[in-house]
Amino acid sequence: MTPPDVLIAAARSDPSLAVLEGFHALKHAVRFDATIELAVTANVRAVVALCSELAPDVSESLISLLREIDEPSFARCAPRPPATGVVTVAVRPAVDIPAALGSSGSAVLLEDPRHHGNVGAVIRAAAALGAAAVFTTGDLDVWHAAALRGSAGLHYALPVATVEGIPDTARPIVAFHPEGDSLSRGIPANALLCLGSERSGLSKAVLSRADYTVAIPMREGVSSLNLATAAAIALFAATTG
Ligand SMILES: C[S@@+](CC[C@H](N)C(=O)[O-])C[C@H]1O[C@@H](n2cnc3c(N)ncnc32)[C@H](O)[C@@H]1O
User: Fold this and answer.
1) Stated pTM of the model
2) What separation in Å is there between the alpha carbon of 232 and the centre of ligand 1?
3) Which of 46, 74, 199, 216 has a CA 20 to 30 Å removed from the CA of 106?
């Protein structure tokens, strides 16, 4: 039988699978109906205790997935084994992009993001605020383990996909740019909220497609907000009107 650390290492480069490091990621994956292939821990009792404290709603199904392995094997399952003591392999769900665009709630488009942690934080905020979907462009793997750490596994709570440029959509296109019109004017409902790359911001191509260009007000002297912070503010403003 293939050892679990070898299976997990292989899953990291398998485009159909995702590796979830930590209890919260597994909890959210189970809560949002992920297909789990493997969930390993070196201490089942500790994970069971976390379940009763933090996830009683899914504890039965989560506990039934756990496989106990020895400490040295668990240490090989992740570059930084999570303090919450569990590593999971789950299936990446297929995304129906037209259906995701057609559902209600704001959607987010991140243009060429460079940091997995930022992408994960945006997905986490989008899930919390009931967004319709998160899309990215560019070559960053949004299902990388570091992005799943950032989202705490909330990739499974809404459609997450990489697209080629702005998709065909009837949604109003709102570009977030520090030199746009003030956010206090409001954001149209069910918009596609576009945010740019950490280093270079939004491209001219996206800015020229936008129906609205919106700035989050900042104190004089501050050039820009972090991408995930700007996305969370944009989503909150879009949700609360
Ligand atoms: C770190 S910023 C990019 C900074 C980049 N140097 C630039 O020139 O735009 C990442 C993205 O967050 C969004 N953003 C950051 N601060 C913003 C603000 N005050 N108003 C609107 N959008 C903002 C924009 O979409 C921006 O492209």
Assistant:
1) 0.97
2) 12
3) 199
**In the structure, which protein residues have their CB atom closer than 6 angstroms to any atom of ligand 1?**
176-178, 195-196, 198, 200-202, 215-216, 218, 224-227, 230
Number of domains in the chain: 2
State the closest ligand 1 atom to the C-alpha of 222, by its place in the atom list counted from 1.
19
Q: Which domain holds residue 81?
A: 4-91
- Where does a domain end: 91, 114, 138? 91
Residue 156: CATH number of its domain: 3.40.1280.10
Residue with tokens 């020229």: 208
Alpha carbon 91 to its chain centroid, in Å, reads 15
Same domain? For 52 and 149 the reply is no
Look at ligand 1, atom 8, and give the residue with the nearest C-alpha.
201
Query: Which residues lie across from 134 on neighbouring strands?
Result: 108, 160
- Among the candidates 32, 63, 91, a domain finishes at 91
Q: Give the tens place of pLDDT for each residue, 50-85.
A: 999 999 999 999 999 999 999 999 999 999 999 999
Q: Are 187 and 168 in contact (CB under 8 A)?
A: no
